[in-house]
Amino acid sequence: MPGPLQYFIWFSCTLLEVAVLVCAYRRQAIRQYFLLNLYISCEVIASVVRFEILHHYGLLSLNYAYFYYYSDALLTILLFLALSSLYSQVFGELNAGRYVQFGALFLLSATALFSFAVVQQSSAKLLSHFVFELSQNLYFVGLVLTYILWAAILKLRETRTRLIQIVLSLGIYFSLYAANYALRNLYPSMESVFQSLNPLIGCFLPFAWAYAFWRIPDDARLEPSRLAVIR
């Protein structure tokens, strides 16, 4: 069973996720960032269900392991779709929303096929390893897409401060998770150490998004000169 510190991080992260929804509601940003809020809502639900399964069956049970990895894969797909919605916002004035949606679905399908091809020859538990491989690959794809989006923000001189904050925090989040996955593969003997960092990394995104919704008004704009400095 997790220790007091692990429980504290877990509950703190869940409270931060609830704070995102509360702040988004109070700032009337639920519809504007619908997929982001949908992802956070599902994170809260998954956290509660994981705790119930952990309490009844234990950390090392197959029930907890299966639910954890399957729910993680679904949540990663939702986060990937939330990222595509940010593309739609950045390119909204160019009427490129339909192309963004098509591209997101194409990349999601291609990543799923690649993940399936990787595991189909090497694992007896095909489905279980597939969802793990899919989550891992989507984090790397999300990392690349987030930095491409950031380059587009700089190129188009996007000045919406809240949107910039959300994209930057998403880039840091994907970078941390991608680095964690890479280190776990490079140093399998230290997998338990890197895996223990996942809950801490998971707290970063809801904290950054809660701050963005609560402290940054929707009409706040970043001066182009400051955006050039960030670049």
What does this protein structure show overall?
By secondary structure, this protein is an all-alpha fold. The protein has a single domain, classed as Rhopdopsin 7-helix transmembrane proteins, CATH 1.20.1070. 81% of the residues lie in helices and 0% in strands. The chain has nine helices and no strands. Helix 3 packs antiparallel against helix 4. The chain is globular. The mean pLDDT is 83.
Write a compact overview of the structure shown:
By secondary structure, the chain is an all-alpha fold. It has nine helices and no strands. The chain has helices spanning 4-26, 34-57, 62-90, 97-119, 126-156, 161-186, 191-196, 198-215, 224-230.
List keywords for this structure.
Rhopdopsin 7-helix transmembrane proteins, 81% helix, 231 residues, globular, mainly alpha
Number of helices: 9
Class, according to the CATH hierarchy? Mainly Alpha
Number of domain modules: 1
CATH topology: Rhopdopsin 7-helix transmembrane proteins
**Average of the residue pLDDT scores:** 83
| Global geometry | globular
Helix % is over 70%
Number of strands: 0
Gap between N and C termini: 45 Å
Largest sheet: none
CATH second-level architecture: Up-down Bundle
SSE arrangement:
Blueprint: H1 4-26, H2 34-57, H3 62-90, H4 97-119, H5 126-156, H6 161-186, H7 191-196, H8 198-215, H9 224-230
